[in-house]
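Quick start: what a row looks like.
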Amino acid sequence: MVVAYAYFDTSALITRYINESGRREVLQLLRKNDCVVSAVLPVEIRSALRRRVAEGSLRHPASRRNRETRHRRAFWTVVKVSGEVLAAAETLSAGHPLRALDAIHVASAQLFAARVVSSALIFVSAGIRQTTAAAALGMAIRQIES
C-alpha cells in the first residue's frame, strides 16, 4: 500500500490554526495525507501567531494555538534541516527567486520525495514561488488560496 504524503510549508499549514482562505482545503489534505514539514516550521508558526496577536489581527491568545501545534507535531513527519537540505536549498536559490526559508521548504520536500514514491507526495503552499519551484522539480503541487 502506498502512503500519500503532503508536504506543507508554513503559508499553508498556518491555516490549520487560524481561519484564513484555503483553510478548508488544508484540513481536507490533512485528513487524506500524512503531514510532512520542515524542522523550521514550528518556529515559523509560533512567530506568525505571535506577530498576529501583536498586530491585533488574532484575538485569542497564541498560547492555545501553540499548545495545539506542539500536540499535532507528534503526528508530523519532520524533515531535519541537514547539510544536504541546505545544499539543495542553495542550489534552488540559484535557479529560482526564492527566499531562504522558502528554498529550505522546497529542498526539504524534494529530498523527502526522493526517499518515497515521488508520485505520493504533494507540495502544499500558498506561495506561488514555492509551488513554481516545486513543479519545476517534478513534484505534484497544490496552490492554496491566500
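That is the whole record. The chain has one domain: 5-41+76-143. The chain has a mean pLDDT of 89.
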